[in-house]
Design brief:
The protein is built from 14 helices and eleven strands. With about 325 residues, the chain is α/β, with parallel strands linked by helices. The two termini are about 25 Å apart.
Length: about 325
């Protein structure tokens, strides 16, 4: 990335910041299968500026967890400026600002997707970040609040702030995650802006990633829910982009090995009790669309020790029957 030239060089596929998901363990598992760029979980600017204990947990990283971006949420000038002071002392590669999160507890404060209703305020906040940041700045937006009529205008306001790139989710706030992706509006934004445009939404496999590139002309895609229990998506998308054969879907053994490695990373980071709580949902995601393990997906909720979790992973290995046609069409639950 080159801030001096007002440009930002990002790979064509990026792991999105996912609230409650994007821990170091999650990022490292995805990096192991080709993820070239990742973000920390979304962090509130006020919490980051005040160095809250929770923020410390969210920012845990290591030397192999690079390149790495940080995403801030907020709407208060003071805390955004204070957060920038702390960011300047860290080794992040880029700074993203969230104007896309549709969660009620966020929008009632006028943050996240609520800023889509006031693009002038969004532009002002982004200008503060651009002026004070020592690293490239981007923005994450949706197509609008209720409809996409002003999606181009919102994106242009953001670009006018001086940001280096923009990430656009192909739905409005009201649509959440349930409607079809509006490829036409994404294409209009791409054609209207000079900065790189990265599209997101429904990137669940290499075919859907290709459709996003073909339909919108975007500079890259951001993978979010498509990476849940599916880190192989990165090597598949990269193979598609490089015109190489897409690797076969993982075998039961590979899935089980990856689950075990992921759980071990969680255990190292969080200890036994919390790692079990965290990994239960990942167990469900890794095993989604696989025959013969329905009972395990229920049983996993009662797992109480690391030993039991490892046993559950091995039981999956012996009982699972993979149907790749089914797994390729899995649509995960809603996440930011």
């Amino acid at each position: 990335m080159n801030k001096k030239n007002n440009s930002i060089v990002l790979p064509k596929v990026i792991l999105a910041p996912l609230a409650g998901i994007s821990s170091l363990a999650f990022r490292m598992i995805n990096r192991g299968f080709g993820c070239p760029y990742a973000f920390l979980e979304m962090i509130h600017a006020r919490s980051f500026a005040l160095s809250s204990r929770k923020t410390g947990d969210l920012t845990v990283s290591n030397a192999d967890d690079r390149p790495l971006g940080i995403q801030l949420l907020g709407n208060e000038d003071y805390y955004l400026e204070k957060a920038l002071e702390k960011i300047s002392a860290q080794n992040y590669d880029s700074l993203d600002f969230n104007a896309a999160c549709p969660r009620r507890k966020v929008i009632v404060k006028g943050e996240g997707a609520a800023l889509l209703k006031t693009p002038q305020i969004l532009k002002r906040l982004l200008k503060i970040l651009v002026k004070g940041s020592c690293i490239p700045v981007s923005a994450k937006i949706r197509l609008g609040w209720e409809d996409a009529i002003k999606s181009r205008d919102i994106a242009c306001y953001a670009e006018d702030s001086g940001i280096n790139a923009i990430f656009v989710h192909g739905r409005t706030k009201i649509q959440g995650y349930s409607s079809d992706i509006d490829y036409e509006s994404l294409r209009l934004i791409k054609r209207s802006l000079k900065i790189p445009v990265f599209a997101s939404g429904n990137i669940f496999n290499a075919s859907l990633a290709k459709k996003m590139f073909d339909e919108t002309g975007c500079d890259g895609v951001m993978v979010a829910r498509g990476a849940l229990g599916n880190p192989w998506i990165f090597q598949e998308i990269i193979a598609m982009l490089e015109n190489h054969p897409i690797p076969p879907r993982p075998s039961v053994d590979v899935i089980a090995q990856t689950m075990r490695k992921h759980f071990n990373l969680c255990f190292e980071l969080h200890g036994e009790k919390r790692s079990i709580y965290i990994f239960r949902k990942f167990y469900a995601w890794y095993t989604r669309g696989i025959s013969g393990v329905k009972s395990l997906r229920t049983k996993i909720m009662h797992t109480a020790s690391a030993k039991e979790m490892i046993e559950m992973i091995e039981e999956f290995r012996t009982k699972a029957v993979v149907n790749n046609a089914v797994r390729n069409n899995i649509f995960c639950d809603n996440f930011d």
